[in-house]
Amino acid sequence: MIYIPSGRMANPGAKGWTRTLATGQRNNGWLRERRQQRGVTLVELLVVMMIMAMVAGVVIISAPPPIGDLRKTADRFAARLDHAVGYSITSNFPIALEVDANGYLFTQYTDGAWEKSSDKKLQPVMLSPDYWLEMSKPDNDKKIPDTQLSEPKTHIYTFSPTGETDAFNVRFHHDRKYIDVVMNDQGNVEVIANDAR
After folding, report:
1. DSSP alpha helices (H): ranges in 63-185?
2. Transmembrane region positions (predicted)?
3. Do 39 and 83 sit in the same domain of this protein?
4. What is the C-alpha separation between 99 and 183, in angstroms, rounded?
5. Which range has the worst mean pLDDT, 6-20, 54-68, 152-166, 169-183?
6. What domain range includes position 42?
């Protein structure tokens, strides 16, 4: 800082001397107060909140709709069916799907006997108690009533290493909604969502 005399006195420490910045401006204390004020103003805070709200709105609008648990269960089942068909062809083992009221499992025919599949993706699946299955065969479209599924009877469908399969439909129910998983005799799997309310 440079001392510039404001009067005729020659003593810099005496009255009348003012501190001046190197830019030539006088320091009357306003700069010191401005440097001590380091907070955020209300206007700045509101601007940041508005920007965050707009970004959140864009993210919510562009996000895909949520997939329900019923759809996820049916999609997993369809993916496992598709994998079972491919695994049967590549491993050269017949694969069977066993379905009952509580869930499903895959078995493979090795050394003259049916045993649980060794593939990690074809492990047994137990359904939640509030889900149930309804099954039908497309050749006669005769539905197997779910009262039969509550019995210990197991329905078996096979996948051949040649790519041939038994055609069937599995309907997953939850509350008043249902989704069909359809497999044709060529091994193609399709998930069909229905709006049953």
Report:
1. 69-91, 146-149
2. 42-63
3. no
4. 14
5. 6-20
6. 2-62
